[in-house]
């Protein structure tokens, strides 16, 4: 026992240093812990900036094709949002490659069937066909998107195709006093029409006239026009 007495101060010092080290280490470990922020749905640049602001870094695990999210969007993160981790740790992410994009082929001058076949080969479809008057019947005159512009795979391309030439007529703004002259003009141009008289208490004192196409609109001379006259009595 006498031999140990000189060592007691040394033991006390060791215990003090050990206690101080453990306390300091625990304190430092608590200071270095941060809550992982949410980066899902963010672009890569945004995700890196958010993580760096709290002392973390980003690591991309892999890319996956995602049709409904742009290229470079974070799909999944690990650790998840709200997880407590130490500063300096990496947050792993799965990132979207976005939809597959192809160059829209040129189909101008092709027959509609040929254009449809070529678009199908490129992973595209015919979205809408708009027929326009032209002597080049059945031929693609214009397209949207334009040739060689990028287009998402699977989406449709609008084609403007020539059809039999048709005359068009601009509907005027007419009043009741002009009705007979307007009807005579329609007959002269070969435009068929129907005149409907409706009684409605909501009509104004002066009868109003509505045209099925709407004033200022183009109608084909082959379409039937409906003239609706609204009166109170």
Topology at a glance:
Layout: H1 8-32, E1 33-35, H2 44-53, E2 57-64, E3 74-78, E4 84-86, E5 90-96, E6 101-103, H3 112-121, E7 125-133, E8 140-144, E9 150-152, E10 156-163, E11 168-170, H4 179-189, E12 193-199, E13 208-211, E14 218-220, E15 225-231
Gist of the model:
The strands form six sheets. This protein has a three-stranded mixed β-sheet with strand order 2-5-3, covered by helices on one side. The chain has helices at 8-32, 44-53, 112-121, 179-189; strands at 33-35, 57-64, 74-78, 84-86, 90-96, 101-103, 125-133, 140-144, 150-152, 156-163, 168-170, 193-199, 208-211, 218-220, 225-231.
- The CATH architecture of the largest domain can be given as 2-Layer Sandwich
* CATH first level of the largest domain: Alpha Beta
Ends apart, CA distance between termini: 127 Å
Roughly how many Å is the radius of gyration?
38 Å
Question: Can you tell me about this structure?
Answer:
The longest helix has 25 residues, at 8-32. 24% of the residues lie in helices and 33% in strands. It has 3 domains: 33-98, 2-Layer Sandwich (Trypsin Inhibitor V, Chain A); 101-163, Trypsin Inhibitor V, Chain A; 168-231, Trypsin Inhibitor V, Chain A (2-Layer Sandwich), CATH 3.30.10. The strands form 6 sheets. The chain has a 3-stranded mixed sheet with strand order 2-5-3, covered by helices on one side. A 3-stranded mixed sheet has the order 7-10-8. The protein has a 3-stranded mixed sheet with strand order 12-15-13, with no helix packed on it. The chain has helices at residues 8-32, 44-53, 112-121, 179-189; strands at residues 33-35, 57-64, 74-78, 84-86, 90-96, 101-103, 125-133, 140-144, 150-152, 156-163, 168-170, 193-199, 208-211, 218-220, 225-231. It is of the alpha/beta class. It contains 4 helices and 15 strands.
């Amino acid at each position: 026992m006498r031999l140990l007495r000189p060592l007691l101060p040394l033991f006390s010092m060791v215990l003090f240093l050990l206690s101080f080290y453990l306390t300091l280490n625990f304190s430092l470990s608590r200071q270095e812990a941060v809550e992982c922020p949410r980066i899902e749905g963010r672009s890569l640049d945004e995700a890196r900036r958010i993580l760096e602001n709290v002392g973390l870094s980003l690591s991309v695990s892999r890319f996956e094709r995602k049709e409904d999210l742009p290229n470079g969007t974070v799909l999944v993160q690990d650790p998840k949002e709200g997880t407590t981790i130490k500063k300096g740790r990496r947050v792993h992410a799965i990132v979207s490659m976005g939809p597959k994009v192809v160059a829209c082929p040129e189909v101008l001058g092709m027959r509609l069937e040929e254009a449809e076949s070529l678009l199908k080969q490129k992973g595209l479809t015919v979205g809408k066909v708009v027929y326009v008057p032209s002597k080049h019947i059945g031929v693609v005159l214009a397209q949207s998107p334009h040739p060689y512009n990028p287009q998402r795979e699977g989406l449709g391309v609008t084609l403007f195709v020539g059809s039999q030439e048709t005359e068009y007529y601009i509907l005027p703004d007419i009043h009741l006093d002009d009705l007979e002259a307007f009807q005579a003009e329609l007959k002269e141009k070969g435009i068929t029409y129907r005149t409907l008289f409706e009684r409605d208490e909501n009509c104004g004192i002066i009868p109003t006239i509505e045209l099925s196409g709407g004033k200022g609109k183009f109608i084909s001379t082959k379409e039937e026009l409906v003239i609706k006259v609204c009166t109170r009595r």
